[in-house]
Amino acid sequence: MRCDVKDLKLARKGSLRIEWAANNMPVLNLIARRFKEERPLKGVKVAACLHVTTETGVLMQVLKNVG
Taking phi first (over 0 means left), then psi (-120 to 50 degrees means alpha), and beta for anything else, what does residue 36 get? Predict the structure, then answer.
Protein backbone atom coordinates (compact mmCIF):
# COMPACT_ATOMS: atom_id res chain seq x y z
CA MET A 1 0.00 0.00 0.00
CA ARG A 2 1.36 3.40 -0.94
CA CYS A 3 1.04 6.14 1.65
CA ASP A 4 2.12 9.75 1.76
CA VAL A 5 3.43 10.80 5.14
CA LYS A 6 3.56 14.49 5.92
CA ASP A 7 5.98 14.35 8.86
CA LEU A 8 7.88 11.14 9.69
CA LYS A 9 9.08 12.71 12.94
CA LEU A 10 5.58 12.13 14.33
CA ALA A 11 5.64 8.37 13.66
CA ARG A 12 7.00 7.38 17.09
CA LYS A 13 4.43 9.52 18.90
CA GLY A 14 1.66 8.01 16.77
CA SER A 15 2.85 4.48 17.51
CA LEU A 16 2.84 5.22 21.23
CA ARG A 17 -0.72 6.59 21.01
CA ILE A 18 -1.92 3.48 19.17
CA GLU A 19 -0.20 1.24 21.71
CA TRP A 20 -1.83 3.17 24.57
CA ALA A 21 -5.27 2.90 22.94
CA ALA A 22 -4.84 -0.83 22.31
CA ASN A 23 -4.00 -1.35 25.98
CA ASN A 24 -7.12 0.56 27.04
CA MET A 25 -9.71 -1.12 24.82
CA PRO A 26 -10.52 -4.37 26.66
CA VAL A 27 -13.45 -5.45 24.49
CA LEU A 28 -11.48 -5.04 21.28
CA ASN A 29 -8.58 -6.95 22.84
CA LEU A 30 -10.97 -9.79 23.73
CA ILE A 31 -12.20 -9.93 20.13
CA ALA A 32 -8.64 -9.92 18.80
CA ARG A 33 -7.55 -12.78 21.08
CA ARG A 34 -10.70 -14.84 20.45
CA PHE A 35 -10.49 -14.72 16.67
CA LYS A 36 -6.70 -14.65 16.18
CA GLU A 37 -6.51 -18.31 15.12
CA GLU A 38 -10.01 -18.70 13.65
CA ARG A 39 -9.70 -15.63 11.37
CA PRO A 40 -13.41 -15.39 10.52
CA LEU A 41 -12.89 -12.43 8.22
CA LYS A 42 -10.27 -14.10 6.04
CA GLY A 43 -11.05 -13.37 2.40
CA VAL A 44 -13.63 -10.72 3.29
CA LYS A 45 -13.07 -7.16 2.13
CA VAL A 46 -13.97 -4.58 4.73
CA ALA A 47 -14.30 -0.91 3.86
CA ALA A 48 -14.67 1.86 6.36
CA CYS A 49 -15.16 5.57 6.18
CA LEU A 50 -14.46 6.90 9.64
CA HIS A 51 -13.09 9.90 11.41
CA VAL A 52 -9.52 8.76 11.93
CA THR A 53 -8.55 8.58 15.57
CA THR A 54 -6.08 6.52 17.56
CA GLU A 55 -8.91 4.15 18.47
CA THR A 56 -9.87 3.78 14.81
CA GLY A 57 -6.29 2.76 14.10
CA VAL A 58 -6.51 0.01 16.71
CA LEU A 59 -9.85 -1.16 15.28
CA MET A 60 -8.32 -1.42 11.80
CA GLN A 61 -5.38 -3.43 13.16
CA VAL A 62 -7.77 -5.86 14.87
CA LEU A 63 -9.88 -6.27 11.73
CA LYS A 64 -6.74 -6.95 9.71
CA ASN A 65 -5.54 -9.53 12.23
CA VAL A 66 -8.85 -11.44 12.36
CA GLY A 67 -9.16 -11.65 8.61
Answer: alpha
Q: How far apart are CA 44 and CA 12, in angstroms?
A: 31
Residue 3 maps to a domain: no
pLDDT in tens, 12-64: 998 899 899 889 989 988 998 998 888 998 898 888 777 778 888 888 888 88
CA dist 61 → 23, 67 (Å): 13, 10
Tell me, yes or no, if the pTM score tops 0.85: no
Contact status, residue 65 vs residue 28, Cβ threshold 8 Å: no
**What domain range includes position 54?**
9-65
Look at the alpha carbons of 51, 32, 10, 2 in this order and tell me if their dihedral is positive or negative: negative
